[in-house]
Specification:
single chain; 22 helices; Ribonucleotide Reductase, subunit A; two-stranded antiparallel ribbon; about 500 residues; about 60% helix; mainly alpha; two-stranded parallel ribbon
Length: about 500
């Protein structure tokens, strides 16, 4: 009697294997209710009828993910090691380039770490296994980004000022309250709003502009480690953007009642993200000695073309409209970077970076990039600042600036179409006046005033005596600043060291 041969089991495809190792491991609770097991996904008003409809863009098992990321890390750390051994910091264009990296180090890794923690939370508390596993993968990504950003820039801490206490500074220093308030706002929202805040606003808006044109700028300025990290991270960011888009589509496809909620979140987080990346605008146009493109060009390419005419065209199918106040942002692209850098210039004596008046080469580039607005801004601002320098002084604003209650940026923005008139809005809540830099920030406040009246505004905290003492030296010590960290770049410790490193050597007879 012959025994029939058994057909070998068909090998699962990657997608089938992924589903078997993630979705198929889910179970229905028996001794607690679903609401008790997943208590955070209903209070925002989002209705979900079928979690199995979640389409996960990661589609990687943990094993495959770790192998893939470890290979990227090996390549990154090989670059870091080679750069350090060859004294690569000497091949940067100028020491002033490092000011952009100081702001990056002080403002970004702590936000990446907060994103890691919140996605870890979602990996436990989302109802569906697909959404939980996607959150787990992004949580690991965010932790890796925080670690590799810190490691990448740690080499420069040996040679340049302002990079020593970046973690303390991220919690305390005035300009770093801008990214900190963004993540605090997102982290205190519900899980679905968090997906919009990070997956849409942070990933689509910020990282597109930070990890592509800005990191290309790092390469142009001889910063091979930062460029390598940036492009290594961007492959992760593409998955994160896809996860954010999947979250939006998932909510919209589950119930038509979700549409107005999602639209309001897109309106809010577009403006919050846009105000956050205004710091990147100043860094791109003024802090990179060699530039790949202007802020205006990057905004037109990565926002207007790719998001406004791409992403939002796709979302029209679901009834989504372009974000509220989008035209305001488009109108500001001609002037935004000038205004941001002028604020940083005025207050760099209380910062962990240095600033200086654009030199002749910089001004020629700015005039070519912004022919309509640069001449006006130059005559009104920089020519006066130059006259102060010519007299032997340096202009620093002696007062403390008024801050926007929502984005927490000093009130240095102007009315759309009029670069000479400062924009200021206000609302009255429970008898108290609150001020804003724009219609967008005022609209966000008026939707949730109970949240934003609690904002930790650095200037208010200084006046209340909560920042080390009543004088600037007291505040600087509380910030963690050391002599030479901030102020004017020309003549600074970084500048003097740079000149000494590149001084011609004198050979003995």
């Amino acid at each position: 009697m012959t025994v029939p041969t058994q057909k070998p089991a068909r090998k699962l495809s990657m997608q089938q294997r992924y589903s078997a190792l993630t979705h198929d491991l889910d179970w229905d609770p028996t001794y607690v209710t679903e609401d008790e097991m997943y208590p955070y996904t209903t209070f925002e008003g989002i209705k979900v009828h079928d979690w199995s409809k979640w389409e996960d863009p990661f589609r990687l098992t943990v094993e495959a993910y770790n192998k893939y990321q470890s290979e990227k890390d090996r390549r990154l750390y090989a670059v870091l090691d080679g750069f350090a051994q060859s004294q690569g910091q000497l091949n940067l264009t100028e020491a002033r380039y490092m000011n952009a990296m100081k702001i990056f180090l002080q403002g970004i890794p702590s936000g990446e770490y907060q994103a890691h923690r919140n996605f870890s939370h979602l990996a436990r508390y989302f109802n569906g296994p697909g959404a939980r596993f996607a959150s787990l993968c992004q949580s690991m990504d965010e932790l890796r980004h925080a670690q590799t950003e810190i490691h990448t820039l740690s080499h420069y801490n040996k040679f340049f000022g302002g990079m020593h206490d970046w973690n303390k500074m991220s919690d305390r220093v005035w300009y770093l309250s801008v990214p900190k308030s963004f993540f605090d706002d997102a982290g205190t929202a519900g899980p679905f709003e968090w997906l919009i805040a990070i997956g849409f606003s942070f990933e689509y808006l910020l990282t597109n502009l930070l990890f592509v044109p800005f990191m290309s700028g790092a390469a142009f300025n001889g910063d091979l480690p930062t460029m390598t990290f940036g492009f290594s991270a961007q492959s992760d960011e593409s998955r994160h953007m896809t996860l954010g888009l999947e979250g939006i589509k998932f909510m919209l496809e589950q119930d038509e009642d979700n549409l107005p909620i999602v639209q309001a979140w897109l309106d809010k987080w577009f403006w919050r993200g846009y105000r956050l990346i205004s710091l990147v605008a100043g860094m791109m146009d003024y802090m990179l000695p060699k530039r790949v493109m202007s802020w205006k060009e990057a905004f037109e390419l990565y926002f207007e073309e790719q998001m406004l005419n791409g992403l939002f065209k796709d979302l029209e199918y679901y009834g989504i409209k372009p974000p509220r106040h989008v035209q305001w942002a488009i109108d500001e692209k001609e002037i935004l970077s000038h205004q941001v850098y002028w604020v940083l210039y005025q207050y760099s004596h209380a910062a962990a970076f240095t600033t200086t008046i654009p030199n002749a080469e910089d001004q020629a580039w700015l005039e070519e990039a912004y022919p309509d607005t640069w001449p006006v801004f130059k005559s009104v601002v920089w020519d006066k600042a130059q006259r102060v320098v010519d007299s032997g002084e340096r202009y620093f604003n002696p007062g403390l600036p008024q801050l926007c209650q929502v984005c927490q940026i000093p009130m240095g923005f102007t009315e759309p179409g009029n670069p000479l008139v400062q924009c200021q809005r206000h609302s009255i809540y429970e008898g108290e006046r609150f001020d804003f830099c724009s219609d967008g920030c005022q609209w966000i406040f008026d939707r949730e005033p109970e949240k934003y009246v609690q904002a930790w505004l650095p200037v208010h905290q200084i006046y209340q005596g909560n920042c080390g003492g009543p004088t600037l030296p007291d505040v600087a010590v509380w910030y963690g600043l050391e002599p030479g960290d901030g102020g004017e770049y020309i003549g600074s410790m970084d500048h003097q060291d740079w000149l000494a490193w590149h001084a011609p050597t004198i050979k003995e007879g």
